[in-house]
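Lecture 7 notes: from sequence to structure.
We start with the chain below.
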Amino acid sequence: MRCIGLTGGIGSGKSTVSALLAERGAVVIDADAITRELQQPGAPVFEAMVERFGAGIVAADGTLDRQAVADIVFTDPEALADLGKIVHPSVGAEIARRLAEEAGTDHLVVLDVPLLVESGRDDMAGLVVVDVDPEVAVRRLVEQRGMQEADARARMARQASRQDRLARADVVLDNSGTVADLAAQIDARWAEIQSLDASAETDAG
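Predicted structure tokens for the same chain:
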């Protein structure tokens, strides 16, 4: 197994990059997708969240109302910290389980984690950062996800800065253009991503 990290600020298009890498043969472990799985009704994480934040975070259909959760935690640092204590250990355990499943394979595994730089995780062979101007990201979040601008900016403020992410990057993908532009960049740098990973593992071994 060769494991690289993939990260980017909210609205950067990281999920699009993740899908494009999967199309090229990478095995993607998506922390956001895992989080959604663990927050399904009846799951322990879901129940713990309802106990902490109240029935107001449950939508009419019984699923988690993510916007209601965001409205609570992004204006209350203590609530945000409590959410992290509920969610992060379970997500981390599931990521570890999936990585263990890939051990011994020759797969290129992409660990897709929004807060990878913030976590300080350094056990990967390389880091790919999806970069976009923060103002472009805000516009996309408002137009494509229907977020309130203040909400989008509040979430950005709690993430690593653009400069911090770029300082940690081994490969930077510029997502200021179209999906076609992004796909072309990945094609042009696919071999680089793989050789970066291989050389890093050789050095580490």
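Points to note: Residues 1-26+107-199 form a domain with the Rossmann fold fold (CATH 3.40.50.300). Residues 198-205 have pLDDT under 50 and may be disordered.
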